[in-house]
Design goal:
- The protein is an all-alpha fold and 94 residues long.
- The protein has a domain of 42 residues.
- 71% of the residues lie in helices and 0% in strands.
- It is built from three helices and no strands.
- 0% of the residues are buried.
């Protein structure tokens, strides 16, 4: 038993395929135009509308305590690295 919905679906898909086949150039140009519009939108959002950097004339504030904390952590990391380099490890390939 065939369903009438199945026949309608087949006919509509066949009609769609023939329409796409007949107007392939027009569909290609339309898809190309949509692609160019999307690319232009991406260029506008990510390149043209970039946030403005603060001007050089403004004073820059540095939090002294935070700066010292960061420098202490970096120095501690550097000393750990130097201690690790100074250790001598046995050669595992002998």
């Amino acid at each position: 038993m065939k369903l009438p919905l199945n026949n309608i679906l087949k006919k509509s898909l066949r009609h769609l395929a023939f329409t796409l086949k007949e107007k392939a150039n027009l569909i290609f140009v339309a898809l190309l135009l949509i692609d160019c519009l999307g690319a232009a939108l991406i260029v506008y959002l990510y390149i043209i509308r970039t946030p403005q950097l603060p001007s050089v004339s403004q004073n820059v504030e540095i939090k002294t305590q935070m700066y010292q904390d960061v420098m202490n952590r970096l120095n501690a990391r550097e000393t750990k690295i130097q201690e690790g380099i100074a250790k001598s490890y046995p050669d595992i390939f002998r």
